[in-house]
């Protein structure tokens, strides 16, 4: 995509990278809204189904029923901007005129007009809106088909599902990076954007065919209001003494197995107590909330510090634009005279991720399950997240070293002032940093998915999945901010100083940029160690007991309240 922005819209390296960073950020922010809508109102199946139908059949040119739009459109247009992208490829007026070669060394390129940029950014925005409806629900919906808290092997089953789900996503990215890119190079952008439309139609048909056999978890309309009620109740009762944990003054939802709150974040416990112990029922039950609601909010608050540690690795994982530009300036012969497209080198990261998932699930976990380790679920989620952070530090350090060598060679070969020249260095040197990035992602991102899923109750599983996307979104935003700050800070002072991330890779210092990310990653790793220590042990047992029929949720009776929902 960075080459499309450069060649078709004449954007600079830093501007194009920032556009993609911001698009990635928006695409990863919107799933949090889709997750709340899914878990609170529509349910996961309905959001995915409506999203799929609208994606396939709704074009921006069609007139839509307003009621239909208001209730579902905001969640569901995943690939509608493919129509816009195809439009920008078919009609020359939708993009700037081609650059004019004035002399062998100079050319003139028109800047894009506001209307052209509007069409481009509208396509990005609609993709982000659509991602908000499908990304948080697809993984959680798949897990619903396998999850059974009564099964002693449930955690291992879900672990296998999460790993292979992410591996399947990796395979799709590999196909996209190789096949779709090759189609775009050979047949042009029109066919290149049209193929995903056909694939989306096929996926929609396959998804809807299986609808009769799906397990469907309905939305819980009390989720969002419950969060607000917990905060209001805790504040209202802040001056009262909290009862002991064995007291019967705790309010629990009718039929719930959670009868008393946990000791963590105890200031919220006052929201689910009966203020006056002499009352069999409170005068206004709707001002109180249940133990279940308190623990739901606690589960979200407790993971936020650990979630914040995933922002920096999201920055490193989203480094696609600059390595592609590096590959474009290097010898891309892979086997014999066969040359890989610059954007296809990212496939090695996804391939590493996919291979590690298979190796971990089929070899590492069985080994750890036996003696002397006796760990049936393998490496713990938090350990895997930490390992992924360490590997990401190494990945950016290697990226800086490779770029340092490429830049030095450009100067030694006398081509530093020609950004289009090919440096006499194999682009295969980039493979190592991609592999390390993919391995770090396999440890950290999949560890995140399993960690969040295990810490949240069933009615918050879409939110758990959305936290991963939200971390990636903030990471993209942070990446854009870092690029902008580096670009502005390193070109100040006059005297012909060139930005580290300038248009000419040879005159810039992309190696320093990578090493800056490496330093940030090391600091982030130590911050993660602190957050992990503060979090303590996982709380999987809490929700297992609450969800398994017959569980006691920790003992005690409490008072059931049908009106408190």
How do you describe this structure in short?
It contains 18 helices and 8 strands. With 565 residues, the chain is mainly α. The chain has one domain: Growth Hormone, Chain: A, CATH 1.20.1250.20.
Structure characterization notes:
Its main location: membrane. GO terms for molecular function: transmembrane transporter activity. It is found in: Membrane. The protein has a single domain, classed as Up-down Bundle (Growth Hormone, Chain: A). The protein is built from 18 helices and eight strands. It has helices at residues 2-9, 13-42, 44-57, 66-76, 81-90, 114-144, 154-187, 189-209, 223-236, 291-308, 310-317, 321-328, 347-369, 381-412, 430-455, 461-490, 510-535, 540-547; strands at 100-103, 106-108, 251-253, 330-331, 333-335, 338-339, 423-426, 559-561. The strands form four sheets. Strands 1-2 form a two-stranded antiparallel ribbon. The protein has a two-stranded parallel sheet with strand order 3-8.
Low-confidence parts lasting 5 or more residues at pLDDT below 50?
57-86, 548-557
By CATH reckoning, the class would read Mainly Alpha
CATH architecture: Up-down Bundle
Percent of sequence in beta strands: under 5%
Helix content: 55-70%
Q: Given the helix and strand composition, which structural class is it?
A: mainly alpha
Q: What's the SSE pattern? A: HHHHHEEHHHHEHHHEEEHHEHHHHE
CATH superfamily: MFS general substrate transporter like domains
Q: Write down the overall geometry.
A: elongated
Radius of gyration: 26 Å
How many beta-strand segments?
A: 8
> What strand order characterises the main sheet?
1-2
CATH topology: Growth Hormone, Chain: A
Oligomer: single chain
Amino-to-carboxy terminus distance: 48 Å
The total number of structural domains is 1
Averaged pLDDT, please? 77
């Amino acid at each position: 995509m960075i080459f499309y922005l450069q060649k078709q819209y004449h954007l600079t390296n830093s501007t194009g990278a920032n556009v993609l960073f911001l698009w990635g950020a928006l695409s990863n922010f919107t799933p949090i809204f889709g997750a709340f809508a899914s878990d609170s109102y529509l349910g996961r199946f309905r959001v995915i189904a409506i999203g799929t139908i609208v994606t396939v059949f709704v074009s921006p040119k069609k007139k839509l029923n307003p009621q239909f739009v208001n209730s579902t459109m905001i969640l569901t247009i995943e690939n509608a901007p493919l129509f816009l992208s195809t439009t920008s490829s078919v009609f020359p007026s939708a993009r700037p005129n081609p650059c004019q070669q004035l002399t062998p060394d100079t050319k003139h390129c028109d800047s894009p007009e506001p209307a052209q940029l509007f069409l481009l950014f509208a396509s990005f925005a609609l993709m982000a809106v659509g991602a908000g409806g499908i990304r948080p629900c697809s993984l959680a919906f798949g897990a619903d088909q396998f999850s059974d808290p009564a099964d002693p092997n449930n955690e291992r089953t879900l672990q296998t599902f999460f790993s292979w789900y992410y591996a399947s996503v990796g395979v799709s990215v590999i196909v996209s990076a190789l096949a779709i890119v090759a189609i775009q190079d050979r047949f042009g952008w029109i066919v290149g954007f049209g193929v995903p439309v056909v694939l989306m139609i096929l996926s929609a048909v396959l998804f809807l065919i299986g609808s009769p056999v799906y397990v469907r978890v309905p939305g819980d309309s009390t989720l969002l209001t419950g969060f607000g009620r917990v905060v209001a109740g805790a504040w209202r009762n802040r001056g009262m003494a909290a009862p002991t944990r064995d007291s019967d003054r705790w309010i629990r939802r009718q039929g719930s197995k959670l009868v008393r709150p946990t000791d963590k974040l105890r200031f919220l416990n006052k929201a689910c107590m009966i203020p006056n112990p002499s009352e069999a029922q409170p005068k206004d039950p709707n001002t109180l909330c249940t133990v279940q609601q308190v623990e739901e909010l606690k589960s979200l608050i407790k993971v936020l510090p650990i979630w914040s540690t995933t922002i920096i690795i999201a920055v490193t994982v989203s480094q696609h634009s600059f390595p592609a530009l590096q590959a474009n300036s290097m010898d891309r012969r892979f086997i014999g005279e066969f040359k890989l497209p610059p954007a296809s080198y990212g496939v090695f990261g996804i391939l590493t991720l996919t291979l590690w998932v298979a190796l971990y699930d089929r070899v590492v976990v069985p080994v750890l399950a036996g003696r002397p380790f006796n760990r049936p679920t393998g490496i713990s989620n938090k350990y895997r997240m930490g390992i992924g952070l360490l590997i990401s530090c190494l990945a950016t350090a290697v990226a800086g070293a490779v770029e340092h060598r490429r830049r030095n060679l450009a100067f030694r070969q006398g081509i530093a002032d020609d950004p289009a020249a090919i440096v006499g260095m194999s682009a295969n040197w980039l493979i190592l940093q991609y592999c390390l990035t993919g391995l770090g992602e396999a440890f950290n991102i999949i560890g995140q998915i399993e960690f969040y899923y295990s810490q949240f109750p069933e009615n918050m599983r879409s939110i758990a999945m959305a936290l991963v996307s939200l971390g990636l979104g903030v990471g993209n935003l942070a990446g854009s901010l870092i690029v902008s700050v580096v670009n502005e800070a390193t070109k100040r002072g006059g005297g012909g100083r060139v930005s580290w991330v300038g248009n000419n890779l040879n005159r810039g210092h992309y190696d320093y940029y990578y090493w800056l990310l490496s330093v940030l990653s090391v600091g982030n790793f130590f911050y993660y160690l602190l957050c992990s220590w503060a979090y303590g042990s996982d709380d999987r047992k809490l929700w297992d007991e609450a969800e398994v029929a017959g569980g006691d949720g920790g003992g005690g009776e409490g008072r059931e309240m049908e009106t408190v929902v």
